[in-house]
Specification:
single chain, alpha/beta, Rossmann fold, seven-stranded parallel beta sheet, two-stranded parallel sheet, 16% strand, globular
Length: 293
């Protein structure tokens, strides 16, 4: 039995689809099962509730072999410091998986060994230590910036020919496509042979600055798209104006500052960690249809 969290999220949904294709029995944890497509509900066992809840995770892991773990971002808006959110959300699941001998595949940040505050990324890295300390059999998918984050910029790209972030324009921002994350997670969930605790960095084969991303987007769309770097203080202020808590805005600003300081290069990785999808392919297959829709 494979247990999958966040089955309606961007990554979780793709992991679920891949695992279902294998024919393995699947159980999902969902706050609202009605959000699952009908064809999915017919093929999975559903445990309703939050996967942070002790009773819910205990019920879901009964008789399970593998657990896909991802801390959902939905709770960040009203949450306090990200560290507390990540650790409180994960503690019961890690302890329960360890006690039951369930292999865990979890999503985290690339950047182990970075010396400095990194907001949300520090929270994820602290979560890794919590998981490790339980002794659970685990594979930590260590990830950089998601290419899909740029989908939030589809409207300004389409209407103004610009996208903006607080990341340094001429500093490489390592990326990964969620389809590659899902492929790696599903392969590990279906593999009954691994043991121990290992970090698995996943990074796209290219190494682009935001300015270079703008060039690639321009070439893909056939028109000029520019990158606009927003001052970090303005980025933080805008988040608060849009309803983010001050602690979330600070955690997000600290994350971007760490990205600008090379957090993703702090963690050694093997060339084999390069994923299948490069940024140009992603722009052609995902960003372009979204911008043109």
């Amino acid at each position: 039995m494979i247990v999958i969290t966040t089955p309606t999220g961007d990554i979780g949904r793709q992991v679920l689809d891949r695992v279902l294709d294998s024919g393995e029995p699947v159980r999902v944890i969902a706050r609202d099962s009605s959000r699952l497509p009908e064809h999915v509900r017919a093929r999975v066992e559903v445990v309703e509730g939050s996967h942070a809840d002790v009773d819910t995770i205990a019920k879901a892991l009964q008789g399970a072999d593998h657990l896909f773990w991802l801390v959902p971002p939905a709770g960040f808006q009203d949450a306090g410091p990200a560290r507390s959110y990540y650790l409180d959300f994960t503690r019961a699941a890690a302890q329960e998986a360890a006690s039951r001998g369930v292999r865990m595949v979890h999503v985290t940040s690339l950047g182990h060994g970075y010396d400095g505050e990194a907001g949300l990324l520090s929270a994820a890295l602290d979560m890794d230590e919590l998981i490790k300390d339980t002794g659970v059999q685990d594979r930590a998918l260590a990830l950089p910036f998601f290419m899909e984050n740029l989908l939030r910029q589809a409207q300004p790209i389409a209407q103004q020919g610009v996208f903006s972030m607080a990341n340094t324009a001429d500093w490489p921002l390592l990326t990964v496509a969620t389809r590659d994350v899902a492929a790696a997670a599903a392969a590990l969930l279906l593999d009954k042979t691994w043991s121990g605790q290992v970090r698995v960095p996943l990074v796209s084969p290219d190494r682009l600055t935001p300015d270079a991303m703008a060039e690639t987007i321009s070439e893909t769309l056939g028109r000029t798209v520019s990158y606009q770097q927003v001052p970090l203080a303005d980025f933080q202020d805008r988040m608060v104006q849009r309803g983010a808590s001050p602690s979330l805005a600070q955690d997000m600003a600290d994350m971007v500052s760490a990205q600008n300081n090379g957090i993703y290069d702090a963690e050694p990785r093997d060339p084999a960690s390069a994923t299948a999808t490069d940024f140009r392919q992603w722009c052609q297959n995902v960003l372009k249809p979204t911008v043109q829709s």
